[in-house]
Design brief:
single chain, about 150 residues, alpha+beta, 3-stranded antiparallel beta sheet, two-stranded antiparallel ribbon, 5 helices, Tubulin--tyrosine ligase-like protein 12, TTL/TTLL_fam
């Protein structure tokens, strides 16, 4: 969430969920979207996903040399840097939600894949019923504590 342009103040909703391709990836059948794409929620192919608390437990277990807390710091830094470069800074005030896709990898170097200016929050509300309460409390009431949000400045 872009809370302020000058000075730059960005907030990140700390709850997330991961989506996985429905079939194991390999370089065969390049036209099979179920092997290569994670956004299969708009058809009847099913949706493989994981909540953040489950992911963090598995991540820390699999990569003890790269704890999630360290990876999260790098992701938040990348998000703040990307917002400092956005054209949107020319506006006086803006409060929007920008969901970001961040791939993983052995080097644990986050990469920003996409920034959406008109996000679909339906799934966020389904997975985390307090999503809008958390986000709107931060955006419009300046209530930062207890809302699963971290402010980046």
């Amino acid at each position: 969430m872009l809370l302020s342009v000058k000075p730059l103040k960005v907030a990140v909703y700390k709850r997330f969920w991961l989506r996985f391709a429905n079939l194991a990836f390999d370089l065969t059948e390049l036209d099979n979207a179920n092997k290569h794409f994670t956004v299969n929620n708009y058809n009847d192919s099913g949706l493989l996903q994981m909540y953040c608390h489950d992911f963090i437990t598995k991540f820390d277990g699999q990569y003890p040399e790269h704890p999630w807390e360290q990876a999260e710091r790098r992701i938040f830094s990348m998000i703040l840097q990307s917002h400092s470069k956005l054209e949107i800074q020319r506006q006086v005030k803006s409060c929007r939600v920008y969901p970001c896709c961040v791939p993983g990898g052995r080097c644990m170097e986050p990469q920003l894949l996409e920034v959406n200016y008109g996000s679909d929050c339906k799934r966020a509300c389904e997975y985390y019923p307090d999503f809008f309460n958390d986000v709107l409390s931060v955006m419009f009431l300046d209530e930062m504590e207890g809302h699963n949000v971290e402010v980046l400045e």
